[in-house]
User: Which sequence fits this backbone?
């Protein structure tokens, strides 16, 4: 059971912005890592774009399960995990991350924000904390 990606996005009027993301691509071949990361970023944006405000969903994409939660205020989170990772845990993580993000990052920064301009550093910690270590 693995988590590969945890992203916070903003679903604005015109398009979806990636605000912050963390990736764990360590299980992939070194030469595949950047393309896998690009795929995860693109897929996260696409899923948020296609999701309604106030919705939660789990979407299968290739061998991954993408769990998305789009809040009514447009703030969205996506977790990309393998098929065995418990769905309930993913949505608990998304709730926690989006609540914390909305308290720490001003709502005025969401529409124009990008990973370079948003200062929120907890995603990497959550990604490793929620990683299930197999013995």
Assistant:
């Amino acid at each position: 059971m693995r988590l590969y990606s945890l992203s916070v996005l903003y679903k604005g009027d015109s398009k979806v912005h990636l605000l912050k993301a963390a990736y764990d691509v360590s299980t992939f071949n070194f030469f595949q890592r950047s393309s896998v990361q690009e795929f995860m970023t693109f897929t996260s944006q696409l899923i948020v774009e296609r999701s309604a405000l106030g919705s939660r969903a789990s979407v299968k994409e290739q061998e991954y399960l993408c769990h998305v939660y789009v809040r009514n205020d447009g703030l969205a989170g996506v977790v990309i995990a393998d098929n065995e990772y418990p769905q309930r845990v993913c949505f608990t993580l998304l709730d926690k991350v989006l609540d914390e993000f909305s308290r720490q990052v001003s709502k005025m920064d969401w529409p124009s924000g990008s990973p370079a301009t948003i200062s929120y550093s907890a995603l990497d910690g959550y990604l490793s904390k929620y990683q299930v270590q197999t013995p």
Observations:
- The longest strand covers residues 3-11.
- The chain has one domain: 3-130.
- The beta strands are 3-11, 16-23, 55-61, 64-70, 75-82.
